[in-house]
Write a structure and sequence with these properties.
Mean pLDDT: 77
Number of helices: 13
Largest sheet: 7 strands, mixed
Shape: globular
Distance between the termini: 44 Å
Number of strands: 28
Helix content: 10-25%
Structural class: alpha+beta
Length: 525
């Protein structure tokens, strides 16, 4: 029941007067009872024995907030507007990643949740892009974000998207002192950056261990949402190891999900545990309207701490690269790869001339261990690999056709134009709900498919069909069916129609530059 309903029901309630018995004054009807309209005596406050645990919790939270707040800063940025931001903007509220925190929630409608990065509301991205594009001279934009001091000599962690393209960076402390800051280094792949202010004896936060977090654990989020400086919110760890939702699937996931309120302007702020240790860097929210809706995400320290240490030392990070597309092993696709448990990273594609190709990795391999350590899913493999250096040799345990194969791979640099791709999850139209066509040169050009991709292009997908449920879309290319390569629409139709009734189908699909395995569950009947 909302507040208005509560108020309405109270105003309609019939008040039944209570008549108190009392002595009557002779010759009159004066009652000794309290008048009906007299105010009730104030209720006594609850004693500490009743609310002691709550008071203790409040005191603990106050102590924690007082300890952390001085080490959280407000980051103000002036950046030159990049010309590509104008050329890439398509009129539908979709600019590049740097301005999506403002544009996506405002212009893409309210039906589908969007990932929001936390620039403050004073950033003029939305106004700049939505207004008439008549400015010919260089334009500047102003952004607000947050940061965390991690050392007494003034090193500060924030997000790369907060300081990207900055020509001027200033930091405001909780005591209102303002310092100019210089950029030490940034890593777009992990969305982390390090800036520094000059001085000594600054308050700082110690690193915590995010690998020891458990769902339900209390956390506090600190930052500067919508320009409201030095805010703190409380919540719990909602989930761990969340995958990366961005279109650039090279970026490692393993995000901490929390229901502690996080909004635009919180980018780069601290997520701390009950000990006041830094266990995450707030970086984005997932929302149907651009505002906090109970799902905020932070970069865990297992990624942030080594990345920050490298940035402080070298000013940049070189990430290891295998050259494979990987996705999770699921209960649905495990049976197709002779895997008993739904764990590991499934190789869906191997880039030619990449380290993975040179080492002999194949599509359909299931990577179960890295250097003797179990690999639970694709996100974990991506994170572990990205923390390795180019030139390092890693040893992979692979299940291939039911047999264990050991594959050593010497990594190359992911910063040299290569792309490590991680999947986000994973003409028989009557049964499967998909219409197919041959991949002609014209179609290949339209969907920008490389010459190395062969198969059949999807023309249409019936709503609610097995193909639709598997996430297939118009323009996707089916490369293989049940691990058998296909060269045309008739090949795909023949393979799918030849399956016994009720049997699942495994299709390898190329879409938006990456290949992923999808399981089609046939319609009943």
């Amino acid at each position: 029941m909302n507040l208005k309903l509560v108020q309405s029901s109270l105003t309609r309630r019939i008040v039944v007067p209570v008549i108190a018995a009392g002595a009557l004054i002779a010759g009159g009807a004066w009652s000794l009872a309290r008048p009906a309209n007299a105010a009730a005596p104030a209720a006594a406050p609850l004693d500490e024995s009743s609310v002691g645990p709550l008071l203790s919790l409040d005191q603990a939270m106050e102590t924690l907030a007082a300890r952390v707040t001085p080490a959280v800063v407000n980051v103000t940025v002036t950046a030159k507007v990049k010309q590509q931001r104008i050329s890439q903007f398509n009129g539908n509220g979709q600019g590049d990643d740097d301005n999506q925190g403002q544009d996506q929630g405002q212009d893409q409608g309210q039906d589908q949740p969007q990932m929001q990065q936390f620039f403050g509301q004073n950033s003029p991205f939305g106004q700049f892009f939505h207004g008439p594009m008549q400015q010919q001279q260089p334009a500047y934009e102003h952004g607000l974000g947050s940061g965390v001091i991690i050392s007494p000599d003034g090193y500060i962690v924030t997000n790369n998207h907060v300081i990207d393209g900055a020509t001027d960076i200033h930091v405001t402390m909780s005591n209102r002192e303002v310092y100019p800051a210089k950029l030490i280094g940034a890593d777009p792949l992990t969305d982390l950056a390090v800036i520094k202010i000059e001085g000594r004896g600054f308050p700082s936060i110690p690193w915590g261990d995010s690998t020891k977090l458990e769902p339900g654990q209390t956390v506090l989020a600190f930052g500067n949402p919508y320009g409201f400086q030095f805010s703190v919110t409380r919540g719990i760890v909602s989930a761990l190891n969340r995958p990366n939702p961005e279109s650039d699937r090279r970026k490692p996931g393993q995000f901490i999900q929390t229901d502690a309120a996080i909004n635009q302007g919180n980018s780069g702020g601290a997520l701390v545990d009950a000990r006041g240790e830094l266990i995450g860097i707030n970086t984005f929210l997932y929302s149907p309207n651009g505002a906090f809706a109970g799902m905020g995400f932070a970069i865990p320290t297992q990624i942030a701490q080594p990345t920050v240490s490298t940035l402080m030392r070298d000013g940049k990070v070189r990430h290891g690269y295998i050259g494979i597309s990987i996705e999770d092993v699921t209960p649905q696709n495990a049976k197709f790869f002779d895997v008993k448990k739904a764990v590991g990273a499934l190789v869906s594609d191997v880039t030619p001339d990449s380290p993975g190709s040179k080492a002999g990795l194949k599509s359909g391999d299931v990577i179960t261990e890295l250097n003797g350590k179990p690999v639970s899913d694709a996100g974990e493999l991506q994170m572990e690999t990205s923390q390795k250096q180019p030139g390092d040799t890693i040893h992979l345990s692979v299940i291939r056709d039911g047999k264990i194969v050991e594959v050593p791979v010497t990594l190359e640099s992911a910063n040299s134009g290569h792309e490590e791709v991680v999947a986000q999850n994973g003409n028989d139209k009557g049964r499967w709900g998909v219409g197919l066509a041959d991949l002609t040169p014209d179609v290949r050009q339209q969907i920008e498919a490389p010459a190395s991709v062969h198969g059949a292009v999807i023309q249409n997908v019936r709503e609610g069909s097995p193909a639709d449920n598997a996430g297939l879309q118009r323009g996707d290319i089916i490369i293989s069916v049940n691990r058998k390569p296909v060269a045309s629409a008739s090949d795909v139709a023949q393979q799918l129609s030849g399956l016994p009734a009720g049997q699942d189908a495994l299709v390898l699909v190329w879409s938006n530059g990456a290949s992923t395995f999808r399981v089609l569950h046939p319609s009943e009947g």
